[in-house]
Design goal:
Blueprint: E1 6-12, E2 23-29, E3 37-46, H1 49-56, E4 72-79, E5 94-97, E6 100-102, H2 108-111, E7 122-123, E8 135-139, E9 143-145, H3 152-155, H4 172-178, E10 184-187, H5 200-204, E11 209-212, H6 218-230, E12 239-241, H7 245-253, E13 262-264
Parallel strand pairs: 10-11, 12-13
Antiparallel strand pairs: 1-2, 3-4, 3-8, 3-13, 4-5, 5-9, 6-7
The protein binds zinc ion (2 copies).
């Protein structure tokens, strides 16, 4: 356990456009892990468009003054007292913290393996503090083992395959128009501006489909990370010091980031 009792963290203080400085960097107590949680020292945190939606207020915060960030790579520094053997993490392990951090386990979606649709689902950096900080907690059952052969900053963006699609409804039309017969356009964003009126012949006929994708399930993430272990994935990841998280989000908002930006301590 770290000897310091406090840490620096970014908080969404006044959700709004980046130009209004919605984020503030503050000193807070290092979080204490609940019995079923791990405490993780953050070594890299991806900068995702979802963080921007939370910070700018497109997605109203679920937790006042929440710390964004849900593509966290770090080292376990404390294991909660009630983490069972299935948690299987020890102090010193490298782990990943992703967007999905709680599901009920018993609803009709959870029992069918579609836990990303669970009405009780909770999310890192929205319902609970995330990785724009020195430390973060995660329920052990929702922490991810990480593939070897990658740096921390390469791994962080792999924890959120939820997106790369620009959150602009206008883009749906040309994308549908370009689809082959029977093709499916899957929109993986959590937020999208309104989609303009569709023309049946140009956009949907020939059994083209439009569907949304909610967050990844744990099984999706584990499958993807196992794939990454077998196949070296090239990740373009411009890095920013974590004390410049607001600049990183501003650059993302203004379209100045190519690839997936990552915050480093
Ligand atoms: Zn993300
Ligand atoms: Zn459920």
């Amino acid at each position: 356990m770290a000897t310091n009792r406090t840490m620096t963290a970014w908080q969404v203080r006044r959700p709004g456009p980046m130009s209004t400085r919605p984020l503030e960097r503050v000193m807070v107590d290092i979080p204490r892990p609940a019995g079923d949680e791990l405490l993780v020292a953050v070594q890299a945190c991806g900068v995702c468009r979802t963080d921007l939606h939370v910070t700018e207020g497109d997605l109203p915060v679920h937790r006042r003054d929440v710390t964004p960030g849900h593509e966290v790579v770090g080292e376990v520094v404390e294991v909660g007292s009630a983490v069972g053997p299935q948690g299987q993490f020890s102090v010193g392990d490298r782990v990943g913290i992703a967007w999905l951090r709680h599901t009920c386990g018993v609803c009709r979606f959870c029992v069918r393996g579609r836990e990303n649709l669970c009405p009780e689902s909770r999310y890192t950096g929205w319902d609970a503090d995330g990785g724009y900080a020195e430390f973060a907690t995660v329920p052990a059952d929702f922490a991810h083992r990480l593939p070897t052969g990658y740096s921390d900053s390469e791994l962080a963006p792999l924890l959120c395959a939820g997106i790369l699609f620009a959150p602009v409804g206008e883009l749906v039309l040309p994308a549908l128009e370009a689809l082959d017969r029977g093709g499916t356009l899957a929109i993986a964003g959590i937020h999208l501006s309104d989609i303009p009126v569709l023309n049946y012949q140009r956009h949907l006929f020939y059994e083209r489909q439009l569907r949304s994708v909610t967050s990844n399930t744990r099984a999706d993430a584990r499958e993807f990370l196992a794939f990454a272990e077998q196949h070296r994935i090239a990740v373009s990841h411009p890095t920013y010091p974590v004390d410049q998280a607001d600049r990183a989000l501003t650059d993302l908002a203004d379209g100045r980031i190519a690839g997936a930006a990552v915050l480093l301590p």
